[in-house]
Amino acid sequence: MNVPEYITAQWIDSLTDDTLLAVDQLLHRTFAQIESEEKARRGSAYDLMRGPVELTSAWDRWTRVNSAARARRLRPLRV
Questions:
Q1: CA 72, CA 15: separation in Å to the nearest integer?
Q2: What is the reported pLDDT for 1?
Q3: Tell me, what's the pLDDT at 79?
Q4: Residue 78 and residue 23: Cα distance in Å, rounded?
Q5: Over the stretch 22-52, which tens digit does the pLDDT of each residue have?
Q6: Cβ neighbours for 74, distance < 8 A, ≥ 6 positions apart
Q7: Contact 62/8 with Cβ under 8 angstroms?
């Protein structure tokens, strides 16, 4: 699946519901992996909004897609 570097509303609008859910799952998996690594590294000092650019970027990309899926009344699955 080809996810652009910059996720825009126009790109999201071009996706079918099934594709949007697949992208949501992919981006969530990526975010969760980076977040897990950062939590292990920082421990109790972990703070999402003060994390490295890679972490906050992964969160931003996933939440844009996730919000769009929820706006369409879709229910993203977490596997």
A1: 11
A2: 77
A3: 63
A4: 12
A5: 999 999 999 999 999 999 999 999 999 999 9
A6: 17, 20, 21
A7: no
